[in-house]
Design brief:
Length: 746
């Protein structure tokens, strides 16, 4: 957008990209518009590039936009001396080559008119409509006169907000910055470095997240040349000398062509040279470079199935490097990218990287969201029901960025946080239990996933399952993990993994997957503890009536701005949550009721005292067996109890026992839960409602966000045990209820 000058020798210009003759364009621009029946000469090459992607496009609006832009910028020149109109023409050509649709190109031609000329937004709206006006306004800078030092961060904030409603705004900005970077040569070195630094910190990460690889790679090389000139020159020398570095990719490419041809697969095999920064990184990683390290093979096919067919042929006819295989077709990356990645051993053992994709995948890989055309065009003429445009980015990272920027009201905080967030050099994709997907920075934890999925609703998160296993909120996620966030008092329940209170009684309790915060006060991944009985825990200073929310320790685990801003905001609004009282650790407590001395079993031993084993507490109709112990008493165990094997190994003969006619029974149950206020009260209420009496209860202190309850219960009828266990599992925060199966630890 600024009138940067042309660099006479832009050495990193992407090979194969159309070269723009600025002198020819300038001369054509000065000649003014052409006759009514044809487009101006200066925009003819843009029209050709546009028609290559959109054969039926209406070019009259482009001619009209060019005329307005040329007249508005007439008399303005770039620092290198070319007429200023060459800049919007070059930006528009970049977008046309990527396949942008007509509205984007129209706005691109006009993108500097409101900022640098007397043209107003109202005029643009009147001539070209609301959409073009919105795009032009989105990329128009804020005035330093009005905003001072905050002009740059606030301009980017404005641009991001506009991008949230129409992603084409950022497409124009990226193309604008690319042309300015190409023509940065006559600027002062300090200004070149400042612009390159902002490009590196903000715009290149945004290009990556929008999937516009064609712009991203060239921007990376241009920034590399400015910020690391010595390394850039060294890399240029390495590339120039690569002819003698080893086996050539040409030989491997020919072998691959022959392989797919013999398999009767229609495919195009091309060599994709690495760009400068990629070669630099590969050289630092591998040391000595071989000929096959300077590029990759790209195999383009017609259908998705052909991708896997080519993969099978390559792995059959070549030696594959299995560790290098990645399937981004079945699981696309967060930036729309789809492709199969593999590597095979080439001549002399050299490793050759191969990318396999369809032609459409390749178009999206190069152009990202630009390849979507107009992502907001109505489908079958139907507008979105809520009147809002859907976020075309996957999996909605742009929407979440807009949410946290609303909380960063200070320009410096916004600018620092934005650059820190975008500085993450890698993102991961994690899958949700309901089938959705989240894009998170590498190193993100379950805390970040919770706030990414639920926003402020994550204040009530009490735990998580990662790949089906319980995990603390501080657990670091890796690419491909499946995560299920557990919320307090969630109205929804996930299906149980175990049996629902059958004879064995094993099962996994429910976990809330949706809904807002409840009255949870668990250990929260290393945070404060909470008395599971619902009373205030002196060791941790919170009473059950205190509003639920995150602990300060969550900030140590949060990596994303959304999570950190939300947690800090809650803690600032609830200062009482930071108060921690001193008290000694809690010890397990026990509540004991009356004991029943006669078991409902029949043993063929006269006058023997019979008791049910406490390690497995059998109930009808469990298969049982008995053993004589000291004092002549008979202890009855479930047949699958581990103690049976030990008694048999000691040579003690089993006794035949059977259940009597009495319906009552006693059973010991373990309930595993996350700590929260009133948990014990809710559990005992569920037990009483099911008609069971508590003989004894033991509650252990919270450990790793978990609380274990041990109940010995008297049931009027063993048939009610499955229902009792279901009722206990339905208590919020309880994730497992099972029968006692092991002898208690000493």
């Amino acid at each position: 957008m600024s009138a940067e000058a042309t660099s006479p020798g832009a050495r990193s210009r992407r090979r194969g990209r159309t070269s723009i003759d600025l002198r020819r364009l300038g001369k054509a621009a000065l000649l003014g518009p052409a006759s009514r029946d044809r487009l101006p000469d200066a925009i003819g090459h843009v029209a050709d590039a546009h028609r290559a992607h959109h054969p039926d496009a209406d070019l009259l609006v482009l001619g009209k936009a060019y005329v307005l832009a040329e007249m508005s910028h007439r008399g303005q020149f770039r620092k290198s001396g070319e007429p200023y109109i060459t800049h919007p023409l070059a930006v528009t050509l970049i977008l046309a080559e990527l396949g942008a649709e007509t509205t984007t190109l129209t706005a691109s031609l006009l993108h500097d008119t409101v900022e640098d000329t007397d043209v107003t937004l109202d005029q643009v709206r009147a001539e070209f409509g609301d959409e073009v006006c919105y795009l032009v306004d989105g990329v128009t800078k804020l005035e330093k006169v009005d905003y001072g030092a905050a002009a740059e961060p606030e301009t980017f904030r404005k641009m991001l907000v506009a991008t949230g409603n129409d992603v084409r705004v950022m497409s124009i900005k990226l193309a604008d910055r690319l042309h300015n970077m190409r023509t940065l040569g006559v600027m002062r070195p300090e200004k070149q470095e400042r612009i390159a630094k902002v490009t590196h910190d903000v715009l290149i990460p945004l290009a990556e997240r929008l999937g516009v690889q064609a712009l991203k790679t060239e921007l990376e090389d241009l920034v590399f040349a400015i910020l690391q000139p010595e390394e850039y020159e060294r890399t240029r020398t390495v590339i120039a000398d690569r002819a003698g570095a080893g086996p050539s990719l040409d030989l491997v490419a020919e072998d691959v062509r022959r392989t797919v041809r013999e398999a009767d697969i229609t495919a195009e095999v091309v060599i994709r040279p690495r760009h400068f920064l990629s070669v630099h990184r590969a050289r630092l990683k591998r040391g000595e470079m071989r000929g096959t390290d300077f590029g990759r093979l790209l195999v383009l096919v017609g259908e998705d199935a052909d991708c896997y067919a080519v993969l099978g042929e390559l792995h059959t006819c070549f030696t594959p490097v299995i560790s290098e295989f990645k399937d981004f077709i079945a699981a696309p990356k967060y930036n729309l990218y789809q492709s199969l990645h593999t590597a095979v051993a080439g001549p002399g053992g050299a490793v050759v990287e191969v990318l396999i994709r369809t032609h459409q995948m390749h178009k999206v890989a190069e152009a990202g969201v630009v390849a979507l055309g107009n992502p907001y065009a109505p489908v079958d003429g139907a507008e979105p029901a809520d009147g809002e445009r859907a976020d075309p980015t996957r999996p909605g990272w742009l929407s979440r960025l807009l949410e946290w920027q609303e909380s960063a009201t200070d320009p410096d905080t916004f600018w620092t946080t934005l650059r820190a967030d975008l500085a993450q050099d890698r993102e991961i994709s994690v899958f949700l239990a309901d089938g959705g997907m989240l894009g998170l920075p590498a190193g993100a934890t379950c805390v970040d996933a919770a706030y990414a999925q639920y926003g402020d609703g994550a204040h009530g998160c009490i735990g998580a399952r990662v790949n089906g296993r319980l995990a603390t909120l501080s657990t670091v996620l890796v690419d491909g993990d499946t995560v299920q966030l557990l919320l307090a008092h969630s109205p929804a329940q996930e299906p149980r993994n175990g049996r629902d209170g059958d004879g064995d009684g094993s099962g996994t309790g429910k976990a809330g997957s949706t809904g807002g915060p409840g009255d949870v006060e668990g250990t929260h991944g290393g945070g404060r503890g909470q008395d599971p009985q619902g009373m205030a825990d002196p060791a941790h200073g919170r009473h059950q009536d205190t509003a639920p929310g995150p602990s300060p320790e969550w900030l140590d685990h949060a990596r994303t701005p959304a999570a950190r801003i939300a947690i800090a905001g809650w803690l600032a609004a609830n200062p009482e949550s930071l108060k921690v009282a001193e008290a000694p650790p809690r010890t397990p407590g026990a509540v004991t009721a009356g004991r029943r001395g006669v078991a409902n079993v029949v043993v063929d031993v006269p006058e023997a005292t019979v008791r049910l084993a406490g390690c497995c507490t059998p109930v009808p109709p469990d298969a049982v067996t008995g053993f004589t112990v000291r004092g002549g008493a008979v202890t009855v165990h479930r047949a699958e109890c581990p103690a049976v094997g030990r008694m048999t190994a000691l040579g003690r003969p089993p006794l035949t026992v059977r259940w009597g006619d009495e319906a009552e029974c006693r059973v010991t149950l373990y309930a595993e839960s996350f700590g929260r206020p009133r948990l014990l009260a809710d559990l005992t209420e569920a037990i009483a409602t099911a008609g069971a009496a508590i003989v004894s209860a033991n509650v252990e202190p919270p450990s790793e966000q978990r609380v274990r309850h041990t109940y010995t219960l008297q049931l009027p009828d063993a048939a009610g045990l499955p229902g009792l266990m279901r009722a206990m599992r339905d208590v919020p925060g309880v994730f497992d209820v099972r029968r006692a199966q092991h002898e208690p630890a000493p």
